[in-house]
Design brief:
The chain is α+β, with helices and mostly antiparallel strands and 505 residues long. The chain has 15 helices and 15 strands. The radius of gyration is 22 Å and the shape is globular.
């Protein structure tokens, strides 16, 4: 009873606190961005962890209730920033990718909490993806989005998607009505490698963490449809409407890895050949994996890392796992200065024993704590007139020399796929983004005990001034030691006899 009373008092007081890191925490992140990591990261306090959890719960509820029409993730255009009226769906270009990443987020949440509600969220996302891969009339093609033609909010988007089509009033040039049993749907064409990568990571992660037979049946159906279609189309992404993109070798190997997991007899040997070619090409080149680019488009490296994560997630060959984990490690090491939680959580989650890396811990905790409270409105940012921001010119573009804190970056649908050195960009519009970027990194962080629940760290502090915890004395794992925490979800991970992740202090 006393603990419940303490929690109520703390929750009432938290909204007035503001989500600002301490001066020391900000100084550490600034040093990371400058590749001069000095000092020691101070873990989030009990109260900060409580704020972060409540923030994630709010985004999770909003996404489930408002941003998931038909099981696919969208942003929402509102009548105004002061209105609760939704005008239309937005950010549909990569809705399939975001839906796949939402599926991964739900799977990690299930691994941590084992709540029955999580299973419903997983099924919703799988239902959306299952309809999408049947909507085009070429089963297995993954459109950018698929939704009900009669949905007025969607009609406002698809009627002009790709530019208005004078030959088909009411449809954009890249919007098409479904065929056969899917005639009640409209799908958006011109498939992308990014969408395929995001969806595959979600399917691979959900298969790994969930043992439910019906859910695995849904995953198997989608995987086999997509891979069979890609094989039939000679590993091209062809929507049948004249829009064709080739699948690169890493994407093909990633999908075959998931297919070999759900149906090893049919796809096992095909995967072995493909992944051997990918790893040999990497070895022959003798080059490290490219990390997230500091001054250019982050999205390609973001989704490339998603492919490597999908490969590593269900890999059973220990030699290949070592190679894949080495790739993920190098991506993170080259990406540290970008202050991006995505490669950090990818690295921390790649190993059976959670590696010790204070930089990764600082980036994940710091950036997620900086993430604003819901709702997350689209917003422009301009750093070009700020004398405190150092600017440089790269390929004719003005960018910031160092990664900026989250509050200085343009607000986009998925923040971790956007460069952290954009000097000027974004738009001020009444569009709300779902906060999936926060949720995905947060739940992976919970799974690897980097963003733990406040209950697992220390008693709540009535004075709202919990003493800073020293890194290494709370839930920080020690590589190879006996005090490495078990994965919080209790899910059995594939056995592994290695921990080749470098320790960083």
């Amino acid at each position: 009873m006393l603990r419940r009373f303490v929690r109520i008092l703390l929750c009432l007081a938290l909204p007035a606190l503001g989500g600002e890191l301490s001066t020391l925490q900000q100084r550490v992140l600034s040093g990371v961005a400058r590749d001069r990591y000095t000092g020691r990261w101070t873990d989030l306090t009990t109260n900060q962890l409580l704020e972060l959890r409540r923030k994630a719960e709010a985004y999770d509820q909003r996404l489930r209730e408002r941003h998931l029409p038909g099981g696919m993730v969208v942003s929402l255009r509102m009548a105004s920033t002061n209105s609760d009226e939704v005008v239309s769906y937005e950010a549909l270009d990569h809705s399939s990718a975001w839906t796949g990443l939402y599926l991964a987020s739900c799977a990690y949440r299930w691994a941590v909490l084992h709540e029955s509600r999580n299973l419903g969220d997983v099924r919703s996302a799988l239902d959306g993806l299952g309809r999408a891969v049947l909507a085009t009339g070429r089963p297995g093609v993954l459109p950018r989005f698929a939704g009900r033609a009669a949905d007025d909010l969607y009609r406002k988007a698809y009627s002009k998607y790709g530019g208005e089509d004078p030959k088909r009033p009411g449809f954009g040039r890249l919007a098409f009505r479904g065929e056969g049993d899917q005639a009640n749907l409209v799908w958006l064409g011109s498939p992308t490698r990014e969408d395929y990568a995001g969806v595959n990571l979600g399917l691979a992660t959900a298969w790994f963490y969930l043992r439910d037979a019906k859910i695995r049946g849904q995953i198997s159906n989608v995987v086999q449809l997509v891979v069979s279609r890609m094989e039939e189309d000679s590993w091209r992404l062809d929507d049948g409407k004249g829009h064709v993109t080739f699948a690169d070798p890493l994407l093909v190997a990633a999908w075959l890895r998931t297919a070999a997991t759900v149906d090893p007899r049919r796809f096992g040997e095909k995967y072995d050949r493909r992944v051997a070619d990918v790893l040999k090409a990497r070895e022959d080149a003798g080059l490290p994996e490219p990390g997230l680019c500091r001054y250019c488009d982050t999205a390609p490296a973001f989704f490339r890392l998603a492919n490597i994560m999908a490969l590593n997630r269900n890999e059973t060959n220990q030699t290949r796992r070592l190679a894949l984990q080495d790739m993920i490690t190098k991506v993170w090491q080259q990406s540290e200065v970008t202050l991006n939680p995505w490669p950090a959580v990818a690295f921390l989650s790649a190993f059976e024993r959670i590696p010790v890396d204070s930089t990764a811990r600082a980036v994940v905790q710091g950036l997620l704590y900086e993430y604003p409270e819901a709702p997350r409105w689209s917003a422009a940012r301009d750093n070009t007139d700020d004398p405190a921001v150092e600017l440089i010119t790269v390929d004719g573009r003005t960018v910031t020399r160092y990664a900026q804190i989250l509050g200085r970056r343009p607000v986009v649908p998925f923040q971790w796929a956007e460069s952290s050195t954009v000097a000027k960009g974004g738009v001020d519009e009444p569009v709300i983004h779902p906060g999936l970027d926060l949720l995905l990194a947060y739940w992976i962080g919970r799974d690897v005990a980097v963003t733990p629940s406040e209950d697992s760290v220390a008693p709540l502090d009535l004075k709202l001034r919990a003493a800073p915890t020293r890194y290494g004395k709370t839930n920080a794992p020690v590589r190879g030691g006996t005090n490495v925490p078990a994965r919080t979800g209790g899910t059995t991970r594939p056995s592994s006899a290695f921990t080749n992740a470098p320790a960083r202090f």
